[in-house]
Amino acid sequence: MNPHRSLRSLAWCLAVLLTLGAAACGVDEYSPAPAEPGPQAPATSDLAFKDPGDASVTSIDLTTTVEYDADLDRVRIFARVEDQDGNPLFSFNRYNFSVVLHPASAPRPVDPADTVLDVASSDARVVALVIDSSGSMSATVETGATRMQVAKEAAALFVDLMGPGDLTAIVDFDDEARILRQLTGDQEALKAEIDKFTASGATNLGGALIEAVRAVGTRPGKRAVVLLTDGDDTVDAVQGGPDVWMSDPTSTRYQGLELAKGSELVVFTVGLGEDLSETGLADLRTFAEQTGGEFFQAVTARDLLTAFGVTVPARIDALVPVETYELSFPNPVHPPAGMQLDVLFRVGTVFENANGVHRSVFDGTYTVGQP
Fold first, then answer.
1. With the CA atoms of 347, 353, 358 and 359 taken in that order, what torsion angle do they form, in degrees rounded to the nearest 10?
2. Domains located in the chain, CATH noted
3. Residue 102: per-residue pLDDT
């Protein structure tokens, strides 16, 4: 027998046992029922908002971000509901939504009567800070420092300027893009993550934008992406500039831009140094222009610090905040002390009008407990 396969199997079994143990212990715990198929979409409710005379909506789309509020022991779901044209719908009540925990294995519906639905608004900045960590970032600038060193300094300055309630996520990219730190207001944790950046690999602009959209999610507020790069995209299979990739849905740059636009994310792009080609510059300008943002060329280290410390924060402060739904309910899952549990959930929404019944669902997870 392959010893590595055996170890992996053992680790998987232990993980399953720990998860089941966590769900079966504690106060107000969740004890899974026998596995059975979960609901694919919410059922209609006589208490849900309906508009039989409306014929403008032909379909709806739901996206969510979830967080666990440990202080209140509540689950908070920030939800965007849009019609077929991307227009937000804000007339729903809590009975237009449904939430099911562990939907595929052991469904446990959350009683709508236990939920609270509000329209969430915020003036806080909610930003994905996206930093190029490709190999070219090891080149030096006029001060003798590397581009990576001045990028770290600029990113840390941006974090230091966060105000109360502001949230920042950290994304880095080379061949691939990664969310290094989810949205948080913890400035020291953010700067510690920034300090870990190293330069290697290629430049995946499309992937960076896709991960930035994931990082910001559906949180309300002044929503933005700040993307820094010193070179052209070298990963997208679609070659060429915006005149090519903007009409090709297989392009990762196309996909990232469409996600940003659909999420009402304003993208600010910063080109560091003078190595960007006309194609690369066109890409950055297109990301910004198509989302209502702005492109900045930072030839020197001072230019970069000015962009991150003055210009970009001012532009973000001037943004119009985006509102979302906030659906919250008491957390019903309590693992034993010293253990964490990832709780799967499915949230759905339903709306009935002159065109029939429209449904959309979105799956996610939240984590409870302490490691």
1. 10
2. 3-121+323-369 (no CATH), 132-220+231-317 (3.40.50.410)
3. 85
In whole angstroms, what is the distance from residue 172 CA to residue 181 CA?
A: 10
CA angle (64, 116, 127) in 5-degree steps:
35
**Tokens standing for residue 159:** 């974090």
Q: Which residue has the tokens 């280290």?
A: 301
Q: Measured between alpha carbons, how far is 95 from 155 in angstroms, rounded to an integer?
A: 43
Residue type, 53: G
**Mean pLDDT for all residues in the chain:** 89
CB 245 within 8 A of CB 252: no
Higher-pLDDT residue of 41 and 213 is 213
Give the bridge partners for 186, in sequence order.
none
**Dihedral angle over CA of 332, 337, 341, 343, nearest 10:** 10
Question: Beta strands 167-173 and 125-132: pairing type?
Answer: parallel
End-to-end Cα distance, the chain: 33
pTM of the predicted protein model: 0.84
Is there a contact between 46 and 53 (Cβ–Cβ < 8 Å)?
no
Contacts of 27 (CB under 8 A, 6+ apart): 334
Pairwise CA distance, residues 116 & 93, whole Å: 9
Phi, psi of 147 (to 5 degrees): -60, -35
Write the DSSP symbol of residue 124: S
DSSP-derived letter for residue 371 is -
* pLDDT tens, residue by residue, 94-152: 999 999 998 777 888 999 999 999 999 999 999 999 999 999 999 999 999 999 999 99
